[in-house]
């Protein structure tokens, strides 16, 4: 009987530590997105523009509008949460 009880309690602590790990990882990711809110645009690879085949002309990337950067998902989520909190205050 004792090994079964031990196994059950081990399983419970594993689930608890896994949930804790996910929470810590999520908080770390959001904090990381606050410090580094942008990532390179996927479409232009961080260049912000596309060159024509001739090499003399170019146009802005339509995905990022020439900024070469995109706001990361964690930062967008943070902005959304902050906006929701601001609205509830008023
Ligand atoms: Zn781009």
Write the layout of secondary structure elements.
Blueprint: H1 2-35, E1 38-40, E2 49-51, E3 58-60, E4 69-71, H2 73-89
Antiparallel strand pairs: 1-4, 2-3
Helix pairs in contact: 1-2
Bound molecules: zinc ion.
Residues 41, 43-44, 48, 61, 63-64, 68 line the site of zinc ion.
The overall pLDDT average reads 86
Helical percent range? 55-70%
Low-confidence stretches: none
What form results from the Cα inertia axes? elongated
Number of helices: 2
The tally of beta strands, per DSSP, is 4
Integer-rounded radius of gyration: 23 Å
The proportion of residues in beta strands is 5-15%
- Ligand roster: zinc ion
- Helix/strand-derived category reads alpha+beta
Overall number of domains? 1
Report how far apart the termini are. 59 Å
State the order of secondary-structure elements, H for helix, E for strand. HEEEEH
- Order the strands across the largest sheet as they lie in space: 1-4
- How is the biggest beta sheet arranged? 2 strands, antiparallel
What's the gist of this structure?
The chain has 90 residues and is of the alpha+beta class.
Describe the structure.
The mean pLDDT is 86. The longest helix is centred in the first third of the chain and has 34 residues. The chain is α+β, with helices and mostly antiparallel strands. The chain is elongated and about 65 Å long. It starts with a helix and ends with a helix. The chain has one domain. A hairpin with a 6-residue loop joins strand 2 and strand 3. Helix 1 packs across helix 2. Helix content is 57%, strand content 13%. The strands form two sheets. A two-stranded antiparallel sheet has the order 1-4. Strands 2-3 form a two-stranded antiparallel ribbon. The protein has two helices and four strands.
